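User: Show me a protein chain along with its predicted structure.
Assistant: Here is one chain, sequence first, then structure tokens.
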Amino acid sequence: CCAIEMMATLSGRFDMSRFGAEVIRFSPRQADLMIVSGRISIKMMPVLLKIYEQMPEPKWVISMGACASSGGVFDTYTLVQGVDQFLPVHCYIPGCPPRPESLLDALMKIQAIVGEDAGADDNTEAEEEPGTAAAADEQEPAEGETIDSPLTSEP
């Protein structure tokens, strides 16, 4: 089910390439996003873990569909009941099958997470360099202390 919806997401009608995901690489060394869809058997779990470990940092995971998120209607001893039992999942896509719009929404949420992480990295770099002009402007005066501005001070 999920494979058909993912193919539809890559088609011209939904066009995932608008969001920077034009080329899908099936090599873990060239990927930073793993989309897990469908049922996960206990035998497949170690293989999926190995692929996740081979991905370079930073890496993100999307759980696509009811089967990957919670095992779906297949509550048997051979299937894992949710990929989040052994992988950190950043975004869940509900539904059976999930709509292509849901996959695009999840991709945009991952892009927002990446943007927040990049923004946090920029903020930590500014904090690490206290001698910069930006850091000097952000310093607040101590209690009871005033800062004379060249615009407000009298000659």
